[in-house]
Amino acid sequence: MKTLLEIFIISLRLGLTSFGGPVAHLGYFREAYVHRRQWLSEKQYADLVALCQFLPGPASSQVGIGIGMARGGTVGGFVSFIGFTLPSVLLLMAVAVGFQQQGLIELGLVDGLKIVAVAVVAHALLGMGRNLAPDAKRASIAVLSFVAVLLAPAVWMQVAVILAAGLIGWGLYRNADLPKAESLPLKLSAKFSAVCLTLFFSLLALLPILRAATDSLHVQLADSFYRAGALVFGGGHVVLPLLEREVVPTGLLSESEFLAGYGAAQAVPGPLFTFASYLGMVIDGTAGAITATAAIFAPAFLLLLGVLPLWLKLQQAPAMRAAAAGVNAGVVGILAAALYDPVFTSAITASADLAFAALLFMLLMYWKQPAWLVVILGVLGGMLFYGG
Questions:
Q1: Cis amide prior to 342 (ω within 30 degrees)
Q2: How far apart are CA 125 and CA 130, in angstroms?
Q3: 3-state class of 214 per DSSP?
Q4: Number of alpha helices (DSSP H) and beta strands (DSSP E) in the chain
């Protein structure tokens, strides 16, 4: 119970302070779980990030679930998810019943938080780069991955880069004496994982049939949001157009209501997938919010529980260790591209922005200040310098 409480408190703190989108979340996670508490090694963390980047669904949420599972089993994964997700769920439900996010934007809060995200991601990227691309070959894989994603920022390119980096890593390192893979301390039976995968595909196939056979609003919501969570690669921003097609043309809510919630979702911490909570709340109150939120995140749980045991076994094979060396370097490149666009391009629009980001980075990198303190300073700085 003590371990679960610890997982919840730390993940809740992250859920309250992790602004900036999925790539920033990965930076916050690394600082909290790898650097400060050493729950995972840099290599274990990178392997988990690589897997979650490859799976559909909210990558940062899946990484948080995986870390919780490594610390406290399957229940620990669920507790970690609740802590990280709950703040943004409640905030967006509040938006749906009248909370006005525009006031926060006018105060400069969002501007400051965007600049915090630049510092946090840059700090995480440097640390990961030193560990995962330590030689010329892996550094080259990282740079080429960065170039590919930067020039072709489509979601499919990220998946293609991970596959290509794995193949290159296998070619370069298959005969190298690489360190043995550091497996996550998970105890999941093959039978349980098979049940999770079966349930994942069964729901994907059966929910549309059930929707056609009934006029239940909650079945309709479950089908729409489950499909969105199961089939979308690339995180929250990619899922938004799909959700718009599911709820606006069908008359469940208006275009203006959708856009108002989208704007609010940018200004709250935690995963952008909790935009589903806002949509469900507008459509059918608290019950709708619960249905939509559970449905959009369920695929992330089922896929991770279904795939992780196989992934951990494959990691022990020398060929997979060689491929993983390339994949991890590729992930560094993908995160570097995300640091530039959208994190840097949306936050740094003047010299003063870059100066503020540099000061926050200095606090993280050299003065070893916790990320939550940097977030608070970013908020205060945003209100002071960017408030209307």
A1: yes
A2: 9
A3: coil
A4: 17, 0
User: What distance in Å separates the CA atoms of residue 5 and residue 70, rounded to the nearest whole number?
Assistant: 15
Q: What is the pTM of this model?
A: 0.81
List the domain boundaries for the chain: 1-106+114-346
Cβ pair 232, 56 in contact under 8 A:
yes
- What number is the average pLDDT over the span 384-388? 70
Residue 26 CB contacts under 8 Å (≥ 6 apart), including other chains: 49, 59, 60, 63, 121, 124, 335
Measured between alpha carbons, how far is 61 from 301 in angstroms, rounded to an integer?
9
Give yes or no for residue 100 having a pLDDT over 50. no
Contacts of 251 (CB under 8 A, 6+ apart): none
Residue 374 vs residue 109, higher pLDDT: 374
CA dist 353 and 341 (Å) reads 16
What does the DSSP assignment read for 117-147? HHHHHHHHHHHHHHHHS-SHHHHHHHHHHHH
C-alpha–C-alpha distance, residues 117 and 295, integer Å: 28
Q: Which residue has the higher pLDDT, 50 or 211?
A: 211
Across the chain, the runs of DSSP E, i.e. the strands, are none
Name the amino acid, one letter, at 130: R
pLDDT tens figures, 225-251: 999 898 876 556 667 667 887 888 888
Tens of pLDDT, residue by residue over 103-129, are 444 456 667 877 888 888 888 889 888
What's the pLDDT at 303? 93
